[in-house]
């Protein structure tokens, strides 16, 4: 597969675990749910590497028949200039050109059966842009890059390919609407953070009562928000501790920075909250100017929400694979 | 450190990582995988597991880390904030360099960017707040001071620490079996080198 044109796009998977004491973050896709569903549609495991399109037009050509799927939000796709719906498996034939075209922007994912066959670094194919390793040569994708793909489809993929090869079946394996993530929800759920109790009563009220606008300072490391300033009841220096994607840091000017996939491993700003993992994909898909509202929930509810979501995803993947085996 | 070693030796299904910072330890796990084994709240399981492990740790004796000697060139071209920091402290730059190279530092943690060591504790005379506005790009190898800590930037990244010099040593090399030169628990001593020596030893091909 050859990159014809690209804006900001990189190779990612679910990230690398086990290296935080070296300062190496998990990283990985910004919207894991979209990437996992894409991988499911092309009969990949969760670990397969996908291309994450974060900005600009992304266009590739294929030199061999491939089973592909596009997922995510804020873009539309065409295959040889014909509209290609998201959230369904599709066949790209040798010589076909795929375009992923930005609309309002967000994150789009291209999954190909077999995943991109780049050598993993420290157990993952995710691109670590800070240290320049992983992914393709440790950098963003560039025009002219060749991405190695699997040669032989596995049995389930073989069956999907055979199914899609019949003309009337082409658009008949779209995900059910209930299985497609709803990115329109404005409200993001969070669990109160370590320093929540140290914020003024007014700040604790404001974080839930007021809307926060996503600024243009938004990248894989973090999303900076603009809204009513939040203050500690008493200014004090904190000792750096671990931070993770979803951590809502408040900088000295009172503004919120939500850490995202590539955030550093430790931070020293007060944490008013932690966005729940189940809502991180929703936040990742928000674009500059989006109005965001936060709702506090307790840790037990956050945990149950996650387990329920994971359970749904697992049974969906199981059903899909059964259907084609 | 003792608890971290115990955790690494007794992991549970779903365990992903453990990291330490100055005075805290964080355990990372996959709630779904834990739930497959416990069929109850993963958070409660891990909390209990951690408490039990912590209660049986008898020895707080730390397995001592490696000792490192790190060469630093304090030439003004590599230490753009050295003069400002000296003026802030009412010292001359020679005195700042003498103090910085006069003691052994402990690696409290590695974080911020891959391989970035947080070293301490600095002598009070060098305790200096971060710069009001961070530099957009701090060159790899730069040695900085923030509060009572000193650290080294392994990559060209933005940063707010006061830069007083630069080391020719690479702190992070993905090609190595152990990519990080320094680990939490190691100790570091800085030694002064001149510009000639820096250029001779320089491991950063692009600077």
Word description of this protein:
Chain A has 325 residues and is an alpha+beta fold. Helices cover 18% and strands 27% of the residues of chain A. Chain A has 2 domains: 178 residues, no CATH class; 123 residues, Cyclophilin. In chain A, the strands form 4 sheets. Chain A has a 7-stranded mixed β-barrel with strand order 11-18-15-16-13-12-19. Chain A has a 5-stranded antiparallel beta sheet with strand order 1-4-9-6-7, with no helix packed on it. A 5-stranded antiparallel beta sheet of chain A has the order 2-3-10-5-8, with helices on one face. The longest helix of chain A is centred in the C-terminal third of the chain and has 25 residues. Chain A is elongated and about 65 Å long. Chain B is of the alpha+beta class and 207 residues long.
Concise account of the structure shown:
Chain A is α+β, with helices and mostly antiparallel strands.
Uncertain runs of chain A: none
> How would you describe the oligomerization state of the chains in this entry?
heterodimer
Instruction: Report helical residue fraction of chain B.
Output: 25-40%
Largest sheet of chain B: 7 strands, mixed
Please write the string of helix (H) and strand (E) elements of chain B. HEEHHEHHEEEEEEEEH
Question: What is the average of the pLDDT values of chain B?
Answer: 92
- What is the first-to-last residue Cα distance of chain A? 27 Å
Overall SS class of chain B: alpha+beta
Question: Hey, which two chains have the biggest interface?
Answer: A-B, 33 and 36 residues
How many domain units of chain B?
Answer: 2
Strand element count of chain A: 19
Principal-axes shape call of chain A = elongated
Strand order of the largest sheet of chain B: 3-11-4-5-8-7-10
List the helices and strands and how they pair.
The complex is a heterodimer of chains A (325) and B (207).
Chain A: E1 2-5, E2 8-12, H1 32-41, E3 50-55, E4 58-61, E5 66-72, E6 75-79, E7 82-83, E8 90-92, E9 97-102, E10 108-112, H2 155-165, E11 187-192, H3 201-209, E12 212-218, E13 222-226, E14 241-242, E15 247-250, E16 256-259, E17 266-267, E18 271-275, H4 280-284, E19 291-296, H5 299-323
Chain B: H1 2-9, E1 15-20, E2 25-29, H2 31-38, H3 42-56, E3 67-73, H4 82-89, H5 93-100, E4 105-110, E5 117-120, E6 135-138, E7 142-146, E8 149-152, E9 157-159, E10 162-166, E11 187-193, H6 195-201
Parallel strand pairs in B: 3-11
Antiparallel strand pairs in B: 1-2, 4-5, 4-11, 5-8, 6-9, 7-8, 7-10
């Amino acid at each position: 597969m050859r990159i014809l044109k690209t804006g900001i796009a990189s190779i990612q998977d679910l990230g690398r675990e086990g290296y935080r004491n070296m300062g190496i973050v998990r990283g990985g896709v910004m919207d894991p749910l979209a990437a996992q569903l894409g991988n499911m549609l092309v009969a990949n495991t969760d670990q397969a590497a996908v291309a994450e399109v974060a900005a600009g037009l992304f266009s590739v050509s294929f030199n061999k028949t491939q089973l592909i799927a596009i997922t995510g939000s804020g873009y539309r796709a065409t295959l040889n200039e014909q509209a290609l719906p998201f959230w369904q498996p599709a066949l790209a034939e040798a010589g076909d050109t795929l375009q992923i075209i930005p609309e309002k922007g967000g994150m789009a994912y291209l999954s190909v059966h077999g995943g991109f066959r780049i050598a993993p670094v420290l157990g993952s194919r995710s691109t670590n842009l800070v240290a320049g390793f992983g992914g393709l040569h440790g950098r963003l994708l560039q025009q002219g890059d060749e991405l190695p793909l699997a040669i032989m489809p596995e049995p389930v993929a073989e069956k999907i390919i055979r199914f899609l090869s019949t003309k009337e079946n082409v658009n008949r394996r779209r995900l059910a609407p209930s299985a497609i993530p709803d990115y329109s929800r404005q409200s993001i759920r969070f669990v109160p953070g370590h320093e929540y109790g140290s914020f003024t009563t007014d700040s604790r009220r404001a974080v839930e009562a007021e809307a926060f606008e996503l600024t243009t300072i938004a990248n894989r490391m973090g999303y900076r928000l603009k809204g009513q300033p939040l203050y500690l009841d008493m200014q004090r220096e904190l000792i750096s501790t671990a931070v993770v994607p979803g951590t809502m840091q408040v900088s000295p000017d009172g503004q919120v920075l939500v850490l995202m996939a590539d955030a550093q491993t430790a931070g020293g700003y007060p944490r008013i909250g932690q966005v729940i993992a189940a809502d991180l994909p929703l936040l990742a898909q928000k674009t500059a100017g989006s109005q965001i509202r936060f709702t506090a929930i307790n840790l037990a509810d956050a945990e149950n929400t996650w387990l329920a979501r994971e359970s749904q995803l697992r049974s969906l993947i199981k059903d899909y694979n059964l259907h084609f085996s | 450190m003792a608890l971290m070693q115990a955790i690494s030796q007794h992991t549970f299904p779903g365990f992903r990582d453990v990291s330490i910072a100055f005075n805290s330890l964080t355990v990372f796990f996959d709630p779904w995988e834990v739930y497959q084994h416990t069929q109850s709240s993963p958070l409660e399981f891990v909390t209990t597991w951690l408490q039990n492990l912590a209660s049986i740790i008898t020895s707080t004796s730390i397995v001592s880390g490696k000792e490192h000697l790190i060469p630093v060139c304090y030439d003004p071209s590599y230490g753009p904030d050295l003069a400002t920091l000296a003026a802030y402290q009412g010292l001359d730059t020679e005195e700042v360099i003498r103090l910085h190279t006069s003691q052994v530092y402990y690696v409290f943690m590695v974080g911020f960017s891959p391989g970035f060591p947080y070293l301490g504790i600095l002598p009070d005379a060098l305790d200096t707040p971060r710069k009001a506005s961070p530099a957009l790009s701090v060159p790899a190898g730069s040695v900085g001071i923030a509060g009572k800590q000193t650290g080294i930037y392994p990559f060209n990244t933005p940063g707010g620490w006061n830069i007083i010099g630069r080391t020719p040593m690479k702190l992070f090399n993905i090609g190595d079996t152990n990519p990080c030169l320094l680990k939490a628990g190691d100790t570091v001593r800085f030694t002064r080198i001149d510009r000639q020596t820096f250029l001779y030893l320089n491991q950063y091909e692009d600077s």
